[in-house]
Amino acid sequence: MTTFSKLLALLSLVVSASAGSLVLHEWRTTVPSGFVRHGAAPATDTITLRVALKPNNVAGLEEKLRSVSTPGSSEFQKWLSRDDVLTFTKPSSETLSVFDAFASANGLSPTTISPGGDWVSITLPISKANKLFAANFELFTHPSLNEPITRTLSVSLPSELVGHVDVLHPTTAFTAPTPRLAPPRPGRKIRKRGVPAASCDSTDPAGVVTPTCLQDFYGIPTTPVTHSGGSNNTIMVTGYENDWAQTADLVQFLTLARPDISNATGFTVLTTANGTNPQGPGKGGFEANLDIQYTAGIATGIPLQYLSVGGEFTTALLDTTNFLNGLTDLPTVITNSWGVAEDGFGASLATSICNGYMALGARGVSVIFASGDGGVRGAHGGVCTNNTFNPIFPASCGYVTSVGGTQGFAPETAVNFTGGGFSNLFPAPSYQTTAVSEFLATLQPDFAGIFNKSGRAHPDVALQAWNFETIVNGEVNIEGGTSAAAPTFAAIIALINDRLLAAGKPVLGFLNPWLYERASGAFTDITTGHSSGYRCAANETVAFDAAVGWDPLTGFGTPIFSELLKTALN
Ligand SMILES: *[C@@H]1O[C@H](CO)[C@@H](O)[C@H](O)[C@H]1NC(C)=O
Ligand SMILES: *[C@@H]1O[C@H](CO)[C@@H](O)[C@H](O)[C@H]1NC(C)=O
Ligand SMILES: *[C@@H]1O[C@H](CO)[C@@H](O)[C@H](O)[C@H]1NC(C)=O
Ligand SMILES: *[C@@H]1O[C@H](CO)[C@@H](O)[C@H](O)[C@H]1NC(C)=O
Ligand SMILES: *[C@@H]1O[C@H](CO)[C@@H](O)[C@H](O)[C@H]1NC(C)=O
Ligand SMILES: *[C@@H]1O[C@H](CO)[C@@H](O)[C@H](O)[C@H]1NC(C)=O
Ligand SMILES: *[C@@H]1O[C@H](CO)[C@@H](O)[C@H](O)[C@H]1NC(C)=O
C-alpha cells in the first residue's frame, strides 16, 4: 500500500470505530495552498449546510441531452421544458423518505432550496455537524478573504445516506478567493469621443479593440435583430462578488462605440442569493461592465439581463443554477466570465454544479464560459516553473462552451494567457474525442504525466481577448482576458438565434455536439501561440502550442459569422 492509501484505510477505520456507521465521503490530505488553519470552529456556532439529494435519473437527463443536442437525432433541438427537466432531477421518493427519516431522527429541519427538491439546507450547531458527518470543522483564513471560512478536511455520510446524498457543502470545497478571470489590465488609453482608434490590432501599441473592430473582423452584422424580444431570445450576463453593471457606463459606452444605434439599449437586473446591483459613482465593476458592454455592443437589439448573485463564489455558482433551473422562461444564451481552479471544488460539488448546466443545456440554453486567464496554469496563472497543469472550473465542465483568447488580426494568434487544458474531474465527452485525439497525437512524449489526457478538454472556440475598450465609472478603460471573449461569443450566438427564430427554427441551445460535429469548419483555425501564461516567458516554461485543427488554446478557432449562420440554418 502507498502511504496515501494507508492513510485512507486508517481514516475510514477511525471513522467506523468511533461512530459505527459512517462512510468516508470526501476528503483532502492537505490544506489548499494559501489557506491558513486557525483551529476548531466554535462548537456552539451554527453552520448551514447545503445537501444535494441524489436526482432520480441523472443518466436519463444526460441521455436526453445527448439526443436533443446531437445533429441527426430525431429529437435534435427539441428543447425540454422546466417540468420535463425536473422529472429527471427530482430525488426519488425513497431518497426523500430516507433523508426525512435521518433529519427527524436527528432533530433537523431541512428547507428545500432547489426547484426539483434535489437541494435542501440544514442549519445545525458545529458540534452536531462534526458528530453526524464525522467532520472536524475548522476556521481557515486566506490573505485575500476578509473573514475566516469554516471548512473540514474530511466529511463522511451515515451509511443510510450513502447513495441518497451526493454533496454536503460547505465542507471540503475551498475555492480561490479571486474568481474574476482577468490578466493584468493593459492600462488606460484614452481616445476622444468620435475619434477612431489608430487601429484595431491589439498587438499595435496604438490599437484598441472595439465592437466595430470585432464586427468588421468576424463579419458580424450591425443591423438590429428582428425576432428577439420578450422571452424569445435574451442574453444573460452572470455576475458575482459585488461586481456591478452600470447603466450610465453602458450609455456612455454605446455613445462612444456604437454611434449608429440608440445609446438607451439598457438591461434588466435579476438577483438571487442576496445579490444586488446598485448604481452610482464608483460602483461600476470591471467585469460586469465589460460583459454588459460587449453583449450590448455586438448583439444589436437583443434584450439583455444581468443576474447578480450574492455570496461566496462556490456557493453562488450553486445558487445560480438552482435559481435558473426554477425559471419557466430562460435566456437563450448565458455568458459567464468567472472561474477558479477545479481542485478547489472537489469532485462531488463540481459534478453537481456541472449537472446544473446540463439541465440548462437541455432547456435550450447556450451556457458560455471564459476559458481562464492563466494559460495552462489555472485561472490566473501560477508559478512558471511548476509543470503540472492546473485545470479550471466551470470551463472544464463538458456541458458548457469554453471560449479561449486570441490577439492581433494579421495574423490572429492565441494570446499567451488563454486558458485551456484537460479536466481531472470530468472525462472527455464523446462529442470531442476525435478532435482531441488528433491534437494529442501531435504532442511530444515529454508531456506525459503533466495533465490528464482522458479529461474533458477545452476551450471549444476562441475570440479576441486583449485591449478591449470599455467604460467603467465614467472613464475609458482597457480590458483583456477570455472574459472579453466569452460575452462577445455569446452575442454572436444570440444573433444567430435571432436568424433561426426568423426562419421558424429552434435556437441553438447546448452547442458543443453541434460545434464539434457540424460547425468546426465555420471557424478560422488559429495555429500559432503558446499558453505559458501572462507572466511566464515562452522559452522558460512548458505549455501547449496552438496547432492545426482543435487545440487547447483556441479550440477550433475564431468564428466566421456568415459560415456559422449558414451551418446553423442548414
Ligand atoms: C416571439 O415568439 C412568438 C412565438 O413564436 C412570436 O409570436 C413573437 O412575435 C416573437 N417576438 C418577437 C419580438 O419576435
Ligand atoms: C445618448 O444619446 C443621446 C441622443 O443621441 C444624447 O443626447 C446623449 O448625450 C447620449 N448620452 C451620453 C451619456 O452620451
Ligand atoms: C440572505 O440574507 C439573509 C439575511 O441576512 C440571510 O438570512 C440569508 O441566509 C441570505 N441568503 C443567502 C442565500 O445568502
Ligand atoms: C503545481 O501545480 C499543481 C496544480 O496546480 C499543484 O497541485 C501543485 O501543488 C503545484 N506544485 C508546487 C510545487 O507548487
Ligand atoms: C483523470 O481524469 C479522469 C476523468 O476523466 C479521472 O477519473 C481521474 O481521476 C483523473 N486522474 C487524475 C490523476 O486526476
Ligand atoms: C503575454 O501577452 C501579453 C499580451 O500580448 C503581453 O503584454 C505580455 O507581455 C506577454 N507575456 C510574456 C511573458 O511574454
Ligand atoms: C528566453 O528568451 C529571452 C528573450 O528572448 C532571453 O533573454 C532569455 O535568456 C531566454 N531564456 C532561456 C531560458 O532561454
TrEMBL record:
Gene3D superfamilies: Peptidase S8/S53 domain (3.40.50.200). One of its GO terms (molecular function) is metal ion binding. Binds 1 Ca(2+) ion per subunit. Ca(2+) binds at residues 525-526, 549, 551. It catalyses: Release of an N-terminal tripeptide from a polypeptide. One of its GO terms (cellular component) is extracellular region. Its EC number is 3.4.14.10. It is an enzyme of class 3 (hydrolase). Residues 1-19 form the signal peptide. Pfam families: Peptidase_S8, Pro-kuma_activ. Keywords: Calcium, Hydrolase, Metal-binding, Protease, Serine protease, Signal, Zymogen. Secreted tripeptidyl-peptidase which degrades proteins at acidic pHs and is involved in virulence. This is tripeptidyl-peptidase II. The lineage of its organism: Eukaryota, Fungi, Dikarya, Basidiomycota, Agaricomycotina.
